[in-house]
User: Fold this.
Amino acid sequence: MRSADGVSEVSRLPKILGTLLIAFTLVLGATPALATDIVVQGGGWGHGIGMPQWGAKAMADDGASAEQILQYFYTGANFGEVGDEFTLQANPLHIGIAQGQSTASFSSINGGMTVCLDDVCHAAAAGETWAMRSMGLGQCRLEKNGSPIDAPGECSGQITWSSQPTRRVIFPGLSRTFARGRVLFKPVDGQSTFHVVVELPLETYLLGLAEVPNSWPTEALQAQVIAARSYALYKAWFYRFNLRASCKCHLYGSTVDQAYRGWYENPTGDLTEGGPNGERWAAAVQATAGKALWHSHHGSSRALEAYYFSSTGGATENNEEVWGGSPYPYLRSKDDPGPTSWTNTVTKTQFASALGWDDVFSAVIASRNESGSPSEIVVKGRDGGTPVSTVRTGGQLRSLLGLRSHFIKSFTGFYAAGFSVFLGGDFDGDGKDEVAAFSANDGSWWVFDYESGTLVGTRWADFATSSGWVAHQVGDFDGDGRDDIAQFHPSNGTWWVSRSKGSAFFTTEWADFATASGWQARLSGDFDGDGRDDIAQFHPSNGTWWVSRSTGSGFSTTEWADFSSASGWQARLAGDFDGNGRDDIAQFHPSNGTWWVSRSTASGFSTGLWADFASASGWQARNAGDFDGDGRDDIAQFHPSNGTWWVSRSSGSGFSTSLWADFATPSGWGPQIVGDFNGDGRDDIANFHSGNGSWWVSRSSGGSFSTSLKGAVSPGTGWTGQLAIDVDGDGDDDLTNWRQSIQLWAIR
Assistant:
């Protein structure tokens, strides 16, 4: 049984720029995690067959008796008594403590002991250090305080003592103390080493088990004792004619069988009769004396194979689904009332090395057992430049990766190379934003979710056509509360929508344009106000706006506006500029410095002049947002000639433009993006300066911007994926930064 928390099993730059440049490295925010880490999430600890000890505790906490616990997890089990239904096939039991030893040191406390080699025995006083040491050629000798005692003999001996359990024998090198029975040294056939074995009766053996904490509920302790007694009876029956050759024992004293510690005095251990609350464990042994489990599958003459373990990821296993062989009717999958969870992190290099590969790309759970644990995991990667794949069980990956159990729930962190598109949105509908990233290398969409201070990615979609996609737009196109992604392919003029199902994208064609090329300024927005996002696109050949209205499963495209001036328009922005609940489009014409707004009527656009700028050219970073918090979108624009931000505030039918900020440093900014960074309901602007990797936020007061340092990334250049989204769901937008060269996210 594998130990887990004391539980075991059988078998996680404005004007102040100059004064703050020195300090920017002191506000770096959360430490990012390397994307080369693969995060494996799972549950439980152990093989999952039989009784989960934490599940037994949960049932006891809810008032179940030991009998109810055992009959729940061992379907159809019956109770019997040693001497009635069962014959104790081996009494006393031989418990294997250590195998193939060349030396073993020991001493006694609270009184002396008798030490024998072959038939020659010696009285050993308390506190003396004795040793059994191999001399080669099948010979061993006894030593006392480092000096030989008598001549060497066969590596066969024993230690006995009286006044048990007060008087005890300690093996410091084995981290074991024994208070009951006797210790045997058994020669290893054909070698000059020996096994250390404890010999003692069944009920005495149970007192020294370290399976669950003594402080657990009485009914959980009694259920554990009965399961352990049943398991020991089964092993005694199985090895009734010949001891196990590997240890010359009936049972190992480790998690291979049951965790026998003897007398465990660790004050924090809370295990065995010798630990804190040890009287509770001893009472559970005594209260259930001789009681064990049998099943009609084997008959009443032998105990059933009462496997147990620490915990599950949600349910126990059918024995044949994990170990193969024939189904046992009493080892059926059962929901576990006390499941546990864990997270393991391995690097891609470690994962690939465990498989003998050069690289690993993905691990996908293809099928699951009745319990929900994986039965088939498809792993893909590369070895020697050649794509490779393999199918493994959860148990195989547990062994390869050193996981707590085979109950793997998910893999995250297998990131594609060459992300070229980054979009923000609430793709899983949980109220927090995620980043969707597209890799043209293999046509895959990845969604990165916020976990423990960083973004962790999972693969959500694979496109048959990896290249050529343009105009990726985010919106809730089917109106289900989760954001989707629309993308256009100019080779054939088709719109395809990747609809979110909460954990994956499902992509289908939504529209086929007769005119495949020449479209510009594709924008997403709810232009008809029906709660589903649509797409507007402009064609400069004739100055027309066409809107692809969503039906929930496709686009219906019609002309919405015809401009007398077909060309020259810049900075087309979507937003609800008149505050009527339908998105509109604002466009700027640099020939005369005018803003024109195409207001939606729900079935067309009505276009009018909203602003005339004295300065027609030179504007950059034009952004739409509700900067004054009045429910109508405005437009902020930056002029690098003097480093000023000007906001055109919407009145519902026009723009009123004024100076909102004056930067001491006019140039070098980019990107400059909109978000509500303090959660006050007014949009702000974040400005990135690549000269030192610093983010400065211009926070809106409703009538102007106040700019301060938010954080920085280092080095200043080489970052992409810079978005303003609320990744942690706290109501304040965050800033994401992706560094492809080392696959690293930084969040500020």
Summary: Residues 1-35 have pLDDT under 50 and may be disordered. The chain is about 10% helix and 40% strand. Residues 315 and 372 are 7 Å apart (CA to CA). Residues 218-238 form the longest helix (21 residues).
